[in-house]
Structures are given as structure tokens and as C-alpha cells.
Task: structure prediction
Amino acid sequence: SRVVVLLSGTGSLCAALLAAADDPGYPAEVVAVGSDRAGAAGLAHARERGIDTFVQVLGEHPDRAAWDRALAEELTARRPDWVVSAGFMKLLGPAVLSAFPGRVLNTHPALLPAFPGAHAVRDALAAGVTTTGATVHLVDAGLDTGPVLAQRPVPVLPDDDEARLHERIKTVERELLVQTLGDLVVAGLPPTATTTTEESPR
Ligand code: GRF
Result:
């Protein structure tokens, strides 16, 4: 299966997928890595590995809808079977979501529906929870609201700060993402996870 990864920053989750895909036994290959930020370190890592990359900066488009269309075109050109948002810090719009219905995954550093949004780790710390976690879900039009595919708990330790807790979560996210994507490409979407945009097979 052909996978395109979208990222905005370090790209350690993308790096984990690339490492997993090095194993010929892994059922997916990352055919391209895209970003909304030209300087994203994850892009440089992909380029070093000879992986195709692309950038679509929101501010270089007249509006969000134009950016969404440009991103959809970049993705469509790579013919992905799956699109994986791994630390991509923008909401994917209708052009992208309608181009790949039920085929866009996201990984989130909390046990959704708890702590959605861009500050999940900070919010979990502030809430004083003793357990948070990682979630891989299908992306729908909402913010971190699509059907959950897999979750794994991560303990919060008394002297955790955001960075330490986030790193602990990311080690789990990496494993969860590699495993969940691997299972998906082999077995397809679990029947419970079809989104409203994709009729479940009769
Ligand atoms: C991950 O925790 C992801 O869930 C969140 O941002 C982090 C990205 O990390 N949205 P990296 O860029 O893959 O290192």
C-alpha cells in the first residue's frame, strides 16, 4: 500500500514509519512526505532518505480553501492508498477529505475524546490526570473527532513536565501508528470505523 505522510515539525513519528517500511515484510511504503512548513525537520529527514517531498504553505494561498485544494492535488498526484497526518498541525479541509474518504489517519497524543486540539499534553498535565495516552483515528471534518482505530495508555509521572510527558507519549504513538497502519493496510477498515462518508460494504 502507498502511504503519504503529512507533518509540520520534527517528524519523529514519520521517521518511525519510514524505518518500519524499510522492512520488506511491512505492508506499506511511504511514497511521499508533505508539510505546511518548508523548514520542517521531518522533510529534511525524508529527503535524506530519497523520499519525495512537497510543501504547501497556507499563507502562500489566497485563502484556506485554495490551500486545501492545492494539498489535495499534491496528495492525489502521489496516488496514496492512505494519508497519515503525523504531527501535522492544520485541520485538513473538505477537498483533501473528499479525495480520500475513510483513508486519512491522524495520531494524537491523548486518549481522545479527552484533550483534543493542539495542546493535548499540556492540557492533560493541567488537568492532573495520572493516565493519558496515544490515539490513532480516522480524520473527519472535526478537530480530532473521527472514529478511533487504536488507543494505548501512557502514565503521567508526578514530576513530569510537558516535554518529558510528550516524549513518553511519542514513544507509544510511534509503535501504535506503525502497528495500526500495518493492520489497516492488510485487513482494511474495521467495520466499526467506517466514516459517514464511506458506506460500509454491503
Ligand atoms: C506527536 O505527538 C503528534 O501526535 C502531535 O505532534 C507530535 C509530532 O511529533 N500532533 P513529531 O513531529 O512526529 O516528532
